[in-house]
Amino acid sequence: MRSIRHYLCLATLVAKVTCDAVVDGKLSFYTSSWESWDENVARWSAYEAPTFSAIFKPETEGELSQGIEYLARHKIPYLATKPGGHGNVPTLGTYQNVVQINLDNFRHAVVNPDHSITIGGGAKMVDLIPTLHAAGREMTVGSFPCVGVHGVMLGGGMGRLMGRYGLISDALLRAKVALWNGTIIEASEKVNSDMFWGLRGAGHNLGVVVESTYKTWPDEGGLHYNADMVFTDDSVHGVVETARNIIEAGLDPSLFLILGYVYGAEAKKPLLIVNIVYAHDEEEGRKMAQRFASSPKDATNPITRLSFRETNMDFSELGSGKAIPGVCDVNLKNTLYTASTPTLFDADAMKAVYESFGSFVREHPGANRSILLFEAASGQAMESLPQDYSAYAHRGKMTTNAIIQATWDEDLDGSVANAANAWGKGARDLLAKPEVSGYDKLYAYVNYANKDEPLAALYGYDKEHQQRLTSLKQKYDPHAFFNAYRPLPLEISGWDLPASSKASQSDRDEL
Ligand SMILES: Cc1cc2nc3c(=O)[nH]c(=O)nc-3n(C[C@H](O)[C@H](O)[C@H](O)COP(=O)(O)OP(=O)(O)OC[C@H]3O[C@@H](n4cnc5c(N)ncnc54)[C@H](O)[C@@H]3O)c2cc1C
């Protein structure tokens, strides 16, 4: 590894920096001539993505600290990430030709004697989940192995088992964070508790998490029941009504329910699907799946189930991503929109988004990996915590989240991107209408967000909450180094600006 390192003068990368500042060659920066460059700069989404002028790949905490201090001192913008980073909020794309702080050497995952787990800042779900499983422990985890744990956790962290254990960030016990100038601090309830609060929901804005430690729960044994079902198009009213009944009765904390559309390549149209995952109890899971069984044709809202596949999986398979093959592929183009609803699904709105989804893919066949899904899980564990437990602002608001994801490959003239955004935004706006969503305004999960939502829709409408977040930003990121991910405003007035005029990379000129 060391033999292919390029000990470079940063002057070749960022013209305004002088050569002698390269910390005596102790820090290594790779340029695009590095043979592993392409795989390290690959992104899950190549659309509105960050680009890099160099890669800084520290091997130790000390190196990480020194490197950040160096970059900050020379006003060189940077972004902490790892190969195949899944972050796709379009504000990441305002970070062009920045230095990548590559956290791939920080992927450790260790279960401690007190059963907590400590993971490195670059860990992915594939590092976390098997380690937990081997120790007979579990916690809320994401559904796909390739996703970074910290990118997920810092926005809140939804996933499998959240009905039981709450958000991933709800289980955070402590973190070690490198600040914008390389200083490393601890954050927990006892030390730097303001940073600890902010990390859990608005954490992309405040520093680089070197490592973090979480509470875990015993794996009570037994497999997790999984059912994948496909329905006829005209089952939409019956399926939606069934899902609504399940949700309105109070979602079972052991259930994770997904309902929506994936594009059927053979059928050449979106297919109405339901996926049920029920924790640790095959019998209860099967009962839940049974509620979506085909009904008599003369029922008021009939259901015709075209296919039904049951599997049982252990905890390590919950995050294996097998349900959607290819979901971890990198360098495709994606644009996401999202909206939350309390309990409602609206069948007419579902039909309308089905139609618009179908037209979008018919006109742009290269976008046939697009999806439109509603994820629903009990808020019981999340809501057992006080509203101001962490910076995550939507406790009790996100029982059901729509994920509207347009995915495409080639786009020579930008027309697919335009159509993708028109479809995604149109579907989001329809689903967020008060009469459809059941909310008087938009509530959106920052990790599924685009760039046009008001900041308050992502981080909270409460003015005191906004003031607290802005004060944190002023204290911990006064020069706006961490502005890639739907940045918090440094001034309270920034909360009322239209989304497009938010501060970004350019704020660092004030350093
Ligand atoms: C296929 C797929 C599956 C997903 N599944 C889920 C899911 O189950 N639950 C869920 O809640 N969300 C999920 N998401 C959304 C996900 O939370 C965001 O896309 C998230 O930004 C991905 O983080 P990452 O670390 O992979 O990406 P990156 O691009 O590496 O990072 C995203 C942002 O986080 C910052 N960041 C990353 N690591 C650190 C660190 N150690 N310290 C400080 N900042 C850091 C980066 O600087 C960047 O601003 C999914 C997304 C995709 C594409």
Report on the architecture of this protein.
This protein has 511 residues and is of the alpha+beta class. The chain has four domains: 2-102, Uridine Diphospho-n-acetylenolpyruvylglucosamine Reductase, domain 2 (2-Layer Sandwich), CATH 3.30.43.10; 109-218, Uridine Diphospho-n-acetylenolpyruvylglucosamine Reductase, domain 3 (2-Layer Sandwich); 224-313 and 332-453, Vanillyl-alcohol Oxidase, Chain A, domain 3, CATH 3.40.462.20; 461-503, no CATH class. It has 15 helices and 18 strands. A seven-stranded antiparallel β-sheet has the order 15-12-14-13-17-18-16. A hairpin with a 5-residue loop joins strand 5 (109-111) and strand 6. The longest helix has 18 residues, at 415-432. It binds flavin-adenine dinucleotide. Flavin-adenine dinucleotide (FAD) is lined by residues 44, 79-82, 85-88, 103, 121, 142-144, 147-148, 150-152, 154-155, 157-159, 204, 208-209, 327, 447, 484-485. Residues 1-19 form the signal peptide. Keywords: FAD, Flavoprotein, Oxidoreductase, Signal.
Describe the structure using short key phrases:
alpha+beta, 26% helix, 18 strands, binds flavin-adenine dinucleotide, seven-stranded antiparallel sheet, 4 domains, Uridine Diphospho-n-acetylenolpyruvylglucosamine Reductase, domain 2, Vanillyl-alcohol Oxidase, Chain A, domain 3, Uridine Diphospho-n-acetylenolpyruvylglucosamine Reductase, domain 3, five-stranded antiparallel sheet, disordered N terminus, 511 residues
